[in-house]
Amino acid sequence: MGSARADGVIRTPDPVDFDALVARFRSLYDAEPDGVWAAPGRVNIIGEHTDYNGGFVLPIALAQHTVAAVRRRNDTVVRIASASINDGAVVTLDLTDVTEGGDYGWAAYIVGVGWSAGQRDLPVTGLDIALDSNVPVGAGLSSSAALSCVTARAWSDLLDWQLDNETVADLGRDAENKIAGAPTGLMDQLASVCGQESHAMQIDTRAVTITQLRFDLPAAGLSLLAIDSHTEHSHADGEYAERRRSSQEAALRLGVRELRDVPLESLATTLDKLPPLLRRRARHVVTDSARVEQTAAILLAGDDLRRIGPLLNDSHASMRDDYEITAPSVDALQEAAVAAGAHGARMTGGGFGGCVIALVDQQDAAAVADACVAAAARGGFPTPTVFEAVASGGAARIR
User: Fold this and answer.
1) How far apart are CA 262 and CA 279, in angstroms?
2) Same domain, 69 and 24
3) Rounded to whole angstroms, how far apart are CA atoms 41 and 23?
4) Could you tell me which residue ranges the Galactokinase N-terminal domain spans (predicted)?
5) In sequence order, which ranges of 131-273 are alpha helices (DSSP H)?
6) Does the annotation count 314 as an active-site position?
7) Is residue 4 part of a domain?
8) Sign of dihedral through CA atoms 329, 332, 337, 340?
9) What is d(CA 10, CA 375) in angstroms, rounded to the nearest whole number?
10) Alpha-carbon distance 121 to 133, whole Å?
11) How far is it, in rounded angstroms, from Cα 232 to Cα 325?
12) CATH number of the domain encompassing residue 257
């Protein structure tokens, strides 16, 4: 690993040392890898829990990646070792034994990709894999999607599956949904596979279409801070699944296919048909999807990006009050960031912890970061770590 860049409490995660990863692969498997692949985590700028409701989302791919040195095997065995899990010990699984409902631990995000490929009648062989990552885990930055997508990209390239990006992403989602048991939508995987430098992706999750929108914050004198609360969350837990069930029940009671189909202009009268809990859940989904479209319009018009700030604040309030997925630690960070001069801030990711993002003028970044650390200390919360989130490219072979 290299040295982290630091500016006060703003610390860029250490980069992955590719040479060290390849050397570890050789040591583990007594062979050369066929190549090295990388897939990024993501920050969702706006539009939370809208993806599984057919709505819009607006993520960026991060500069932080999960990196995999990979070699194709001639059997159905998958061997995996991660620098940060199980003390680097090799996990060995046979793809013929992988089924829905099986318990494969963190390896589910990898072997689930091979399982999904087999369900699509793609030719599948085993792999030897060595992994490293600098995507923060449990921070709502899609470290799991980076893991499944680097695997999907490598497998597809090595076996010449000739898949489009959307299908590569869908292999990753299958691994998460059906083998790992995490009920995520498709946003995380699409962002990891399809990211472009200095662009945000407006994703229509129903049509599975992506509009790349220029998102060059440095050119506007801005930074996007990712403030990790170190309050861990999990997509596989019951709270996330409950929100998904509530959304589906609300749509059913309203007689629409998905909450995406509820018109914003008649929202108040439409929601009167629902009991209070479902009313709050539906209001968040419909309004946050609309906020994505408003943000995208600002980007498309080339307007002052500071105008996004109030939309970020409104999104956080909606997640806190209507969808009820924030946590006291992230609420404190969001409030501190805005009080210290951020144009807007909100929690990003599945919720119940994770990261807050804050849109700040570059010259104010250090002061906002300091204020967030101080607010966490006052509240008795874990000390947050802060880094700059930079829109970067998607999953690719790098060696």
Assistant:
1) 12
2) yes
3) 24
4) 24-72
5) 143-158, 165-174, 187-194, 238-254, 267-271
6) no
7) no
8) negative
9) 15
10) 30
11) 13
12) 3.30.70.890
Task: Say which of 188, 228, 288, 331 is annotated catalytic.
Answer: 188
The C-alpha atoms of residue 197 and residue 213 are separated, in whole angstroms, by 10
**Helix, strand or coil for residue 169?**
helix
Q: Closest Cα to residue 138, out of 115, 106, 170, 114?
A: 106
Q: Which domain holds residue 316?
A: 218-388
Query: 222 and 165, same structural domain?
Result: no
Distance CA 392, CA 144 (A): 18
And the tokens for 168? Answer: 């590569």
Please indicate, yes or no, whether residues 171 and 253 belong to a single structural domain of this protein.
Answer: no
Angle at 130 between CA 125 and CA 133, to 5 degrees: 125
* Residues found in the chain: 399
> Residue 277 is encoded by which pair of tokens?
């809990």
266 C-beta neighbours (distance < 10 Å), count: 9
| Both structure tokens of 225 | 């801070």
276 in the same domain as 182? no
Q: Is residue 250 domain-shared with residue 209, that is, in the same domain?
A: no
Dist. CA 118–CA 373, nearest whole Å: 47
Strands 77-82 and 127-133, how do they pair?
A: parallel
**Angstrom distance (rounded) from CA 288 to CA 272:** 19
Residue with tokens 């629409």: 256
- Alpha-carbon gap, residue 93 to 179, rounded angstroms: 13
210, containing H or E segment: strand 209-214
CA 242 to centroid of chain Cα atoms: 19
Residue 200 structure tokens: 């945000």
